[in-house]
Protein: FAD-dependent thymidylate synthase
Organism: Evansella caseinilytica
Amino acid sequence: MSMITVLDKGYVRLVNHMGSDLTVVNAARVSYAKESKELNERDMKLITFLAREGHTSPFRHVILQFEVYAPLMVARQWWKYVVGSAHQEGTGDTLEAWNESSRRYITEDPAFYIPSAQEWRGKPENSKQGSGDVVAWALGDKYTQELMEYVEEGVRKYEAALQDGVCAEQARLFLPAYGMYVRWYWTASLQAVCHFLNQRLEHDAQKEIQEYAKAILQLSQPLFPNAVGELLK
């Protein structure tokens, strides 16, 4: 399995990867001019030690590349990890790259995340951010319908502007932004991927990005079972 669907129209696709648990081990053992040919129990203990003690550079020799299709509100949360990867205390650059499709150049039919009636959440009781319990179905249905109408109106104005000869990079101003799906490639070291997972799998992370983090975990863990398991402890 290389692709997992997320939300109503989104997905995560594993495009490519480099390395294995053995790559992590040998990146660490090169300090002593040693190399393991096959992963053994001693190697697995070394992975545990490296993760526990914060010796993260060996995990940066393993690379994963994903294609992600997600609402803009998810993409912009995710993007912060790329911006901050060079500034994480004690780690240095965790090796990340991001290339995103642009509506300056493409005019494919826009797609939008529309929560169903049972997916709208109320504000939390004891926090200024995040969300609480699911709201009543009638209220959720009301806002599902209103969001659909709002999106449809924006798309009509966007298409009318294109028909009138307005450039794509300005016509896109009519598209409702935060729910619009965008597509990007995310290439990152295993350390960077697990840093993302450690934060976005938490119960207090935004639910929508939690769903994408679960997909990333499901695609990554079979490739590097020992390293992922230790970095997520």
Summary: The chain has two domains: 3-106+180-231, 117-174.
